[in-house]
Amino acid sequence: MPDLGLKNLAHVHIIVPDLDEAAEFYREVMGFLEMQSHHGLVNRGLATYYGFQEIWDRLNISLRFLVFPEVLTIKLVQIKTIGYGGSASLPTLSSQVPYLYGNVGPGPISVVAKDLDATYRILSNYASDYSAKFKLTLLSEPVFLSPLLPSQTGATEHSQLRGQDRILSDLAEKFPQRAKFQLIDPFGVRWEFNNDID
Q1: If 0-12 CB within 10 Å is exposed, 13-18 middle and 19+ buried, where does residue 130 land?
Q2: What letters, b where the CB count within 10 A reaches 16 and e where it falls short, cover 110-125?
Q3: pTM check: above 0.85
Q4: Averaged over 131-142, what is the pLDDT?
């Protein structure tokens, strides 16, 4: 059995049409605490691992993190095409991904790997082995995220980080240090593998 060197669960992505509405639900009904937000990102790295590498400069991506302490972190994701009103106007993902991205719902299960390149090599070798029992679809090689502008990180009025500029600044500084890749397993589950920078 290969050792992928997984360290811990990072977060679970949830694709939503409206960040404010979704955050309100997870705060008010589920009891999650709201943390940082990143908004208005036109980011090649993000677009690549969401499957839109060909049109990355036409996407506006916004993220919001919520945490249920010591249990789970969720990452709400809203993607819009620039110049259009909502995510329903998005095109079909690249042919590797078997559904329309206009749909909302669970996104990748995000895990941290001790050595991202080693994890990628193991999974890439398996995916390219035609005799392998299970078929994997790798969506990209490990890719680093582009830096954030200062205006793209913040905390809403409901955030536990409101007024904690040093923490928000640290999160923004670490953003471009994050590398990741995704795959789809044989059962349609998407997995995101992150480098270990914490």
Answers
A1: exposed
A2: bbbbeebeebbebbee
A3: no
A4: 86
